[in-house]
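Pasting as-is:
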Amino acid sequence: MRWMNFLSEEPRKKKTAGHAFRRKGAPGWSGWIMPSLRITAVVGVFAVALGGPTWLWRSGWVADSWRAAQISAVSVSADIGLTVKEVLLEGRTHAPRAGVLKALGLKIGDPIMGFDLALVRDRIEALPWIQSAAVERRLPGVVRVRIVERDPIALWQRNGVLSLIGRNGVPITNQKLGRFRDLLVIVGKDAPRHATNLLVMLASEPGLRKRVRAAVRVGARRWNLRLDNGIDVRLPENEVAAAWARLADLDRRHGLLGNDIDTIDLRIPDRLIVRTKNDRPIKILAGDKRTL
C-alpha cells in the first residue's frame, strides 16, 4: 500500500541514478545506547502512569501529580528526540489536504507523546469527507494517519444549490463539484435519505440506469425520473423494482423510449400510461405486444 509523505522535517533529497538515498551510517554503541535507554525510560513513565492502581485516582491526590508527571515526561521526551519528524497519510483522494492537516493539529517538532490519539482521530472524523480514521505513533518520530473517505453517490439540488451527498444521505460538500457532474441529481427535502435505495434499484437495469439524469422525490413517498431524452417516468410508491423492470423490458422488446413520448406513468401495477408530446395518452397493458 502506498503511503504519502504528508509532512516532513526537511525536503527529501533526490535519488541519484542507480542508488537510493540513505541516511548516514548508524553511530556506534556509545552513540545510540544512551538515547535508546532514555527513550525506553520515558515510554516506561507513560506506561506506569497509565497502568497504575485505580485507587489512586479515587484519592484525589493523583490528579495534580499525574498532570505534572505527564507534562514533565512530554518535555523530557522532546529533549531526547521524541518529536514529530514526519506525518504519513494514507487513503486521501478527495478530502482537502489542508483540512486534514488542520484537524491533525500537529507540526514538525512537536513532542510525539504530547497529543491524544483518540482526540486527534475524532477531529479528523468530524471532517465532511471522512468516514473513519486511524492515527498511530511510530517512535521515535513518525505519525501515521489512515483515512477512509465517504463514497459520493449523488448531487442534491435544494433551493437552486447543488450539494454532494454520500451513502445514507450524509452531506459532504457544495464546493468544486465539476468532477462529480455525471452523478445523479436528486431533488426533494427527504431525497438524500432515500437516494441509496433508489440507486440500488436503478442499478438492477444497467442499460436503463445510464439514461437517468435526475430523480425528484414526490410527496415524501415516491420518485419521478427524468431521462436523457426528456421523458419523465413516474414510479409507483410500492413495488418500485417490478415497475422499473417492466419499463426496461418494454423498451428492450418495443423500443418504447425511442418514441415521441413526454410521460410514462408506472403507478398502476397491471399497466402503464404513456402520454405523447402532442398530449395524447395511450394505455398499454402489461402483456400488450403492440408498439407505439
